[in-house]
Design a protein that fits this description.
Blueprint (H helix, E strand, L loop, with lengths): L14 E7 L10 H18 L2 E7 L3 E7 L10 H23 L7 H6 L27 E5 L2 H17 L14 H8 L25
């Protein structure tokens, strides 16, 4: 049965494109453990709330997410709720990790840990407003809805191209903290003619072609 809506993907809201930056653009995600923590919390939120991750990338100082869910089935779910859940849970774990390794030489971690500085917050606020450390810039992040197939394909390509533009990889699928490799695996194409092994990140990806 053909959908009565013309929007992508068959629901009025469409897909959600979200960008969030780290506090003061600190490159916390140069540390692979911090990056894995974020990916684990994204996957936990995906499984818990029931949304789909169509594409994502974790860059040293920011993240991009492209998410979708059936608004009829999950009418109470909002992008702000998802953002606060993923960012809040990952921030708590990242702060604990960086505090634990502070002063230790763990690859490049010592440089990241030294940048974890206390942030003065006003007193008399709920406890979550009095955190001594910040991982993310204030606010849920920047988001907008993607309501056409053309724009959806464009945003997937934009997300996957981030590491190449930043000089972190020569091809999108070579960057481990991105969904680009999932799309290449689905195509059955390997790097340099070699078949891909297991995807390194823990996030379950729904290919955008599955919701068009």
């Amino acid at each position: 049965m053909e959908s009565k809506h013309k929007h992508l993907p068959q629901y009025e809201v469409g897909a959600h494109f979200l960008t969030a930056k780290t506090y003061n653009n600190t490159p916390y995600f140069r540390e692979p453990v911090c990056t894995r923590i974020f990916c684990e919390e994204l996957e936990a939120a995906r499984a818990g709330y029931g949304f789909h991750v169509l594409a994502f990338v974790v860059m040293p100082d920011h993240i991009h997410l492209l998410l979708w869910w059936d608004a009829d089935t999950l009418p109470g779910l909002t992008i702000s709720k998802v953002a606060w859940a993923v960012k809040g849970r990952s921030a708590r774990r990242i702060v604990r990790y960086l505090r634990d390794i502070e002063g230790q030489e763990v690859g490049d971690s010592i440089a990241v840990a030294c940048s974890l500085q206390p942030v003065r917050e006003p007193r008399g606020q709920p406890h979550y407003h009095n955190w001594r450390y910040k991982i993310w810039q204030q606010g849920a992040g920047y988001d907008f809805n993607v309501c056409t197939p053309h724009k959806l394909v464009e945003k997937v390509a934009y997300i996957h191209a981030n590491p190449v533009r930043a000089g972190l990889a020569s091809r999108p699928e070579e960057y481990p903290w991105s969904s680009a490799v999932n799309y290449r695996v689905a195509e059955g194409i390997g790097v340099e003619g070699v078949a891909f092994g297991p995807v390194a990140h823990p996030v379950h990806i729904t290919l955008y072609t599955e919701v068009l």
